[in-house]
Amino acid sequence: MEQEGRSLEDMHMLLYRAYHAQTNYLRPRMAQLGLGPGQPKLLAYLAVHGTSTQHEMAAFFEVDDAAISRMLDLLRQAGLVRTTRGQDRRTKTVELTATGHGALAAWDSVCDNEQDVMLAGLSAEERATLAALLERVHENLATASAPAAPAAPAPAPHPAAPHDNPQGGAR
């Protein structure tokens, strides 16, 4: 029989604890920059991808559109992004402002420092291995949690010709 409570020491707990230690390190620094949870990643996304839709960002970060919308509203109010109407009434495009680029530069500096702390004592090879393993972990979990493709409908049966009926005549 397996030990009860073993999940306290398994891989998911190691990731969970590392994530929370990272969050505890970054949140006060994020607040000093006037940024809230989730906002820095949107600034970084826009810097890399340029003008984007809320839906594109939600798909990339694997969250719902409403969560992105709430974060963008706060970023827009702070003058870090600007939104414009997209090709239809329901779509908005988002882009960084000059102030947003400045906030992202400050955030990138915080992340550089955090990475130095997080990876202290790891060789360049170990850092590369860790990055590759985390990418594979993400891919495995994303694949496993992706909705299954809908099954193709069964082809409709072809009506039988009158001569196909062994009793004779049409069906």
UniProtKB/TrEMBL annotation:
Disordered, as annotated region: 144-171
HTH marR-type domain ranges (all copies): 8-139
Keyword DNA-binding appears in the UniProt entry: yes
Regions of compositional bias (Pro residues) in chain numbering: 150-160
SUPFAM superfamilies from the UniProt entry: Winged helix' DNA-binding domain (SSF46785)
Source species: Tractidigestivibacter montrealensis
PANTHER family xref list: TRANSCRIPTIONAL REGULATOR, MARR (PTHR42756), TRANSCRIPTIONAL REPRESSOR OF EMRAB OPERON (PTHR42756:SF1)
InterPro entries: HTH_MarR-typ, WH-like_DNA-bd_sf, WH_DNA-bd_sf
Keywords, in A-Z order: DNA-binding, Transcription, Transcription regulation
Pfam families from the UniProt entry: MarR_2
Entry annotated with the keyword Signal: no
Protein name listed in UniProt: MarR family winged helix-turn-helix transcriptional regulator
